[in-house]
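By way of example, what follows is a protein record of this kind.
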Amino acid sequence: MTSEKARIWEPIKNIGGHYWLEFIVDKREYIKSGNCTKINKVIKFRLRHDKEENKTIDLIFDDIASYRITNESYSDNSIDHIESTKDRKARGPWGFYTIENSSFIEFIEKQTGIPASIYGFKHYYIVSMDDIIDIIASVKPIVEIIVDGKVVESTDSGRHSNML
């Protein structure tokens, strides 16, 4: 496998800055259709801006393959390993990436025996103030910027789950 490469992920303009992981909501949605029941896993990550305490970001993923959270202090895969200090200084604080040639996707393939190409998995890599969040998903997440408790910007195109 070739080495992992981080790409800046900017689902909404001006999303940069430092954020804290505030909470995670991990739910299952049971959808009945005739004799069949489909189970859909929906996960929401809430991140709080470190300077603008009234600003949060919700990342809402439908039916992800896997996620993991690592305390940044114990991670050898911190942002220093995937992006140069020069690039970070030129752009300013940033914590949202996708990973190409992902070893995490490779791990999921080995565990399931299913090639990632069947589902079109993408590796989202979020660096918060204390945690590294790795998410493997086949569908782009809904991203919402919330200020003073109100959604001020969203990538939602009508597929938002009402369960969160």
